[in-house]
Amino acid sequence: MDDFHLPQVKELGASYNYGRGQPHAEQVGKLAVQIACTFRDEGICPVSADDVRVLEAAGWLHDTGKFPAVLEKYRAEAASSGIEWEDDGHNLLSFLMVKHELNPLLKARNLPPVPEEDEAALLYCILWHNGSKYPVLPETPGDWLPRCRRLAAIFRVADALDRGLVQKVASISVEPFTNEITGNSELGFTIGYHRAAGGRPSSLGKAFGLSTQPSRISLEIERALEKSDLMLKAFGLAAIHFKRTYIAD
Ligand SMILES: [Fe+2]
């Protein structure tokens, strides 16, 4: 694929305020790309330029289902889709919006559609970023699924690392290792963070029903641990560990 049309992807996300605003969308895409690049550098999995673009696109689009107009447009289809969903179902709403609106937007700009295999990977990143159900769509060819799973697993952890919507995480490194006792493959993440980050404007915090207190990095890490379930399966790991390291501002 030569071009994922990221400017148009971003335009689509912006038309719904990225669901939860640009800073979160940008941070999640950035963290997902960082994780993917460290996985590649550590030999955990190959990562192509197209994979990187899929993750960045998922950042811009994954939370659009939080936007009221998206809920209005796709609520009925979500309810009758047969796809299991939890909580507010914003992952399914974002998924439906992208499925219906991304290629028509590209067509309106006289651009070719996103290649189907990349579109599938993007849609799985969006659908599996939230909740604990991982529905497999019958139309997805089986040989596309391992890549979809790997990218969605990476994206899911990246989203968790901005749980507080305050862009507290500044760097991520990853170390694969073998547990000396069990012989199992495990992974250790080191999360670099700025202690001062997290001064969320109170109106924004209130709008999302969150505490207006600065986020504690332990909350981000707790959430990333919870949402690393898919990564365990996708990469055949026995355990994933997170430690944090403070970066001076
Ligand atoms: Fe998100």
Task: Give the structure's gist in a few sentences.
The protein is 50% helix and 12% strand. It is mainly alpha-helical and 249 residues long.
| Mean of all residue-level pLDDT scores | 91
Order of helices and strands: HHHHHHHEEHHHE
Q: Bound small molecules, which ones?
A: fe (ii) ion
DSSP helix fraction:
40-55%
CATH architecture: Orthogonal Bundle
Please give the alpha-carbon distance between the first and last residues. Answer: 39 Å
List strands and helices in order, with pairings:
Elements: H1 6-14, H2 22-41, H3 49-61, H4 68-80, H5 90-108, H6 116-127, H7 145-160, E1 169-178, E2 185-194, H8 202-207, H9 217-226, H10 229-235, E3 239-247
Parallel strand pairs: 2-3
Antiparallel strand pairs: 1-2
The site of fe (ii) ion has 5 residues, from helix 2.
Describe the structure.
The chain has a single domain, classed as Hypothetical protein af1432 (Orthogonal Bundle). The chain starts with 5 loop residues before the first helix and ends with a strand. It has a three-stranded mixed sheet. A hairpin with a 6-residue loop joins strand 1 (169-178) and strand 2. The protein is mainly alpha-helical and 249 residues long. It has helices at 6-14, 22-41, 49-61, 68-80, 90-108, 116-127, 145-160, 202-207, 217-226, 229-235, and strands at 169-178, 185-194, 239-247. The radius of gyration is 18 Å and the shape is globular. The longest helix is centred in the N-terminal third of the chain and has 20 residues, at 22-41. Helix 4 crosses helix 5 and helix 5 packs antiparallel against helix 6. Residues 199-203 have low confidence and may be disordered.
